[in-house]
Every structure is written in C-alpha cells, then in structure tokens.
Amino acid sequence: MTVLQEIENFLPCKTPDKWLENAVENPELLLIDHANCEKKAASTALNLIYRYVDNFDLLNKMSRLAREEMRHFEQVIAIMKHRNIAYQQISASRYATRLRGLVRSDDPHRLADILIVGAIIEARSCERFARLAPYLDAGLEAFYLSLLKSEGRHYKDYLALARNVASQQEIEQRLGLFLETEQQLIESADIEFRFHSGPMG
After folding, report:
1. N or C: which end of the chain has fewer CB within 10 A?
2. What angle do CA 41, 33, 133 make, to 5 degrees?
3. What share of the chain is helix, strand, coil (3-state, %, to 5)?
4. Which pTM was predicted?
5. Please, which residues have CB within 8 angstroms of residue 181's CB and are 6 or more apart in sequence?
6. In contact, 35 and 73? CB cutoff 8 Å
7. Average model confidence (pLDDT) for the chain?
C-alpha cells in the first residue's frame, strides 16, 4: 500500500469535486493560501520544539518538518513571483481553527491532540495535492505531485508521535472525534475559497 492509499483510507471522505472546481477557478487564491499553509505548518512545528524540549523524537522530526515546510513556502512564493501574483494577507479558513478548538488544555492530552490535528491536516493536504494536480497546468501539476512524498511522511510522523504520548485506546477515540469534525468541515459549504475550505456554493 502506498502512503497516498494509506492516507485515503485514513481520511473519512474524499475532497468534493465541487472544491476541485473552485480551486481551478481561483488559481491565484489557491497559491496565496497554499503559501500561508506552508508558513503556518512550519510555525506549528517550531512551537512544538519550543514547548516540548524533553521529547527528542519530537524535536528531531519537527526540526526536519519545519525546514521542509519553509522550503515549500519558498517554492510557492517563487511560483507566485514568476506568475506576477502578489502575496497578500487573507483570512484563515475555519478548518484548522475548528480542529484546534477541540484540543484539550492539559498535557499530555494537549500534545496528543495537537499531533493528531497535525496528522489530519498533513493527510488532507496530501490528498488534495494528488486530486488537484491533474486539473492544473503542467508546471503546477509537477510541483504538487512533488510534494506528496514529504506531506505523506509528515502525516506519518505526526501520527507516530501521537501514539508515543497516549494509549492506543485514547488515540483511536480522539481520532474518531477529530475525523468526524474534519469530514463536516470538508463536505459542508464554505463562504470563501481556501486550500482547506469546504466547497463554495
């Protein structure tokens, strides 16, 4: 089984076809928010490094992840510059905010939840890159397909780290809660297009 197949089995639903249509109709917004997502992913990894200094496995994996996410950020903004797309501030989607709203406040439960959310976000990003790539121009298609390996590894790293800080029973219970919410966010209509939004209209 490939990592992508594993991710497709892990996620509760596929990205709706309507979202793919929205993405093709909003190529500039897609790249702007993609850049934001890469930057936020790096920031999340760095925050974990600062907060959980006694977990060497986490420190190593998050250090590598932060470097890769910032490299992806650089690649996205280079594409934007080449295409004369201005990088601007846009509002965040409800997706990550709603998922992180379920995170418990006390450790080690907080850490387990943050890692689960990280795994889900990386898994959804990987699934969307794969589904969206065939609908894009050749340059973007090649770039998005090139991200699958690292995004798939990020998903696996987050999930493995979560399983190291909580029991299997707890992880499965929390995954059920987060994945149920994730499906609602992915399948329900959104008012604005973002990389992790639901379909518009």
Report:
1. N
2. 95
3. 75, 0, 25
4. 0.96
5. 98, 99, 102
6. yes
7. 96
